[in-house]
Amino acid sequence: MTISTASRPAASSWVYLAACVVLVSLNLRTLFSSLSAILPELTAVTALPAWGVTLLTTVPITLLGVFAPLAPVLAHRFGTWQVLGGSLVLLALGLVLRAVPVPDGGAIIPLLAGTVLSGAAIALCNVVLPSIVKQDFADRVGLMSGLYTTSVCGSAAFGAGLTYPLYSALGGWHLALGFWAVPVVLAAVLLVPVLLRHRSTARVSTSTTGRSPLTSPVAWQITGMMVCQAMTSFTCFAWLAPILRERGIDGGTAGVIVAVSIVVQMAGSLFGPVWAARLRSQSWLNVAAAVLTAGGFILSLHGPLGGIWLWTGVLGVGQGALTALALTMITLRSSTSHVAIRVSGMMQGLGYGLGSAGTFLTGQIFASTGSFGPAAWLFAASGLGAAAFGWLAGRDRSIRG
């Protein structure tokens, strides 16, 4: 399907569109990393039961998969940019809701409700962003893929590194978590001119007809890569700080280590897609990222504590590159923007839906053994899977609608 020239950004406006994409992306992971940064304190203050902790760390990731298939339908009806703008409003409401003060013992209700709403909003954003890159930045796919995935990593870094200091400075977990609605509102306001401009072309670049990506082996290989990387990626967001604290590192330092690791991710997520876009095959690149990710996580669990900054740095480089490459495979392997959004819906729906098992299983391992140590086997398996599917997905082939 040919992309309408009306939907392409003019030379004078593509920088503003790019800035909007970056600002939106900077809000797509604070939901996950902010909670984990103060999870021990929140659990102690609210007396959250073990099942409540499991829900709050697993449900939002599962929702990324549940709501992802809805994004192509909404984009066809309203347009990709409109879905992005509406999702930001939902995200802001969800982040505010989970921070609502309630009497002792009832915190799980607004926490879970806000988490559900926020997770659904992030799911829609996740799916439409690759299509927007394919549609509005067709001649800058590598650059824009790198910028928006780097910004996603930055979002996680902000949540991990700033939430604990906010908790200490503001004197409560409610304000520390509620703070993250502020940058979402700012991004939504900046998106208003873009939404007004795209009103007349809202449905030009999306379609729900044509060959289903479910029939494409390439789409399934990309999905398999996404499942395996999501198992490690979101387990890191949810549990890396508690893992470090179990190893004897205090809460503030653990938050800084996680934040630095995620900042390092930004290097991998920025240069991975740029490099990938210049290659005909990305197989070896995908495999290298998977090996670094699994190796870094296992060393963070069992490596000498004196090298923890190095281990989490290796994890950061690998995880940033692996996440970005999985998302970049959507744009590189899709023949058009409407194919890209359908592949994105399939890949992220199944990828996050099944990938959330990593967070759940890690929590269950800790609950049953009292230690995160045995989870190393889970990370080894997910790394091997990501390498195998990444090799297959990286071969030079296209998905056609």
UniProtKB/TrEMBL annotation:
<protein>
    <submittedName>
        <fullName>MFS transporter</fullName>
    </submittedName>
</protein>
<feature type="transmembrane region" description="Helical">
    <location>
        <begin position="50"/>
        <end position="71"/>
    </location>
</feature>
<feature type="transmembrane region" description="Helical">
    <location>
        <begin position="14"/>
        <end position="38"/>
    </location>
</feature>
<feature type="transmembrane region" description="Helical">
    <location>
        <begin position="107"/>
        <end position="129"/>
    </location>
</feature>
<keyword id="KW-0812">Transmembrane</keyword>
<feature type="transmembrane region" description="Helical">
    <location>
        <begin position="375"/>
        <end position="394"/>
    </location>
</feature>
<feature type="transmembrane region" description="Helical">
    <location>
        <begin position="141"/>
        <end position="167"/>
    </location>
</feature>
<feature type="transmembrane region" description="Helical">
    <location>
        <begin position="253"/>
        <end position="277"/>
    </location>
</feature>
<feature type="transmembrane region" description="Helical">
    <location>
        <begin position="83"/>
        <end position="101"/>
    </location>
</feature>
<dbReference type="InterPro" id="IPR036259">
    <property type="entry name" value="MFS_trans_sf"/>
</dbReference>
<feature type="transmembrane region" description="Helical">
    <location>
        <begin position="217"/>
        <end position="241"/>
    </location>
</feature>
<dbReference type="InterPro" id="IPR052524">
    <property type="entry name" value="MFS_Cyanate_Porter"/>
</dbReference>
<dbReference type="InterPro" id="IPR011701">
    <property type="entry name" value="MFS"/>
</dbReference>
<feature type="transmembrane region" description="Helical">
    <location>
        <begin position="284"/>
        <end position="302"/>
    </location>
</feature>
<feature type="transmembrane region" description="Helical">
    <location>
        <begin position="173"/>
        <end position="196"/>
    </location>
</feature>
<feature type="transmembrane region" description="Helical">
    <location>
        <begin position="350"/>
        <end position="369"/>
    </location>
</feature>
<feature type="transmembrane region" description="Helical">
    <location>
        <begin position="308"/>
        <end position="330"/>
    </location>
</feature>
<keyword id="KW-1133">Transmembrane helix</keyword>
<dbReference type="Pfam" id="PF07690">
    <property type="entry name" value="MFS_1"/>
</dbReference>
<keyword id="KW-0472">Membrane</keyword>
